[in-house]
Amino acid sequence: MPETKPRLSQLDPVWQRICEEANQVVRDEPLLGGVMHNNLLHHATMERALAFRFALKLSSAEISEQILREIAEEAYETSPWLGEAARADIVAVHERDPACHRFLQPLMYFKGYQAIQAYRVGHWLWTTGRGDMALFVQMRISEMFGVDIHPAAQIGKGIMIDHAHSIVIGETAVVGDNVSMLHSVTLGGTGKVDGDRHPKIGDGVLIGAGAKVLGNIHIGANSRIAAGSVVLIDVPACKTVAGIPAKIVGEAGCPQPALSMDHRFRE
């Protein structure tokens, strides 16, 4: 007998799980059946669904859904890393956010996840020389999600931005892998200085709500920045900083703060 090839979704456990969850939503809440089919179940791959969501959310009277969808589909087709990062971000949100119980929740309902995926398409545009379109995407992300990330910023994968309201990430900022941040975080500059002027955030860093990290400074891997802090100097790896201006107040308290999401100080 000829060998039976597995379906594409069976080779992609993240996407398979999202489709299974979407089917369960249809059974539990039939009024959302059309939403689940249009956004998820109608698409053969997660990349196609992401492109659809990107276009649906960012289209306007200025630029059509069809144009934006074609842009996003080209991005996902030519840069497989975008799909890998999208999956890593889904897993990150599911593991770290106690309000996230299913893989489909970030893709469908969480603006932090949706904003970071839209930023990634904008970054692809920026790096392929389409700066004006990238800036247009940045503008629409800000208008739709309240998140302002310059398309030139470099952001790794496994990112969790919880709540995401009023996030600002500047042009020359660099964010490593497996970073978690809460709402109202700013990775900004300190004035009108041009050039490399924004923070470099190491892998595994946890940034609390309302924290401001300013200037071309380095935040060491697996460190913690307390909520409401203003960080103006380099932070070594595996430390906790707090205050205005922020100072080292202790060790990070665990090997990977961004994964544990533990914001408590310890004596």
Automatic annotation (TrEMBL):
This is Serine acetyltransferase. Transmembrane segments: none annotated. It comes from the Bacteria. Its EC number is 2.3.1.30. GO terms for molecular function: serine O-acetyltransferase activity. It catalyses: L-serine + acetyl-CoA = O-acetyl-L-serine + CoA. Residues 14-118 form the Serine acetyltransferase N-terminal domain. Pathway: Amino-acid biosynthesis; L-cysteine biosynthesis; L-cysteine from L-serine: step 1/2. InterPro entries: Hexapep (IPR001451), Hexapep_transf_CS (IPR018357), LbH_SAT (IPR045304), Ser_AcTrfase_N (IPR010493), Ser_AcTrfase_N_sf (IPR042122), Ser_O-AcTrfase (IPR005881), Serine_acetyltransferase (IPR053376), Trimer_LpxA-like_sf (IPR011004). Coiled coil: none annotated. The keyword Repressor does not apply. CDD domains: LbH_SAT. It comes from Pararhodobacter zhoushanensis. It holds the Pfam family Hexapep. PROSITE patterns: HEXAPEP_TRANSFERASES (PS00101). Belongs to the transferase hexapeptide repeat family. Keywords: Acyltransferase, Amino-acid biosynthesis, Repeat, Transferase. SUPFAM superfamilies: Trimeric LpxA-like enzymes.
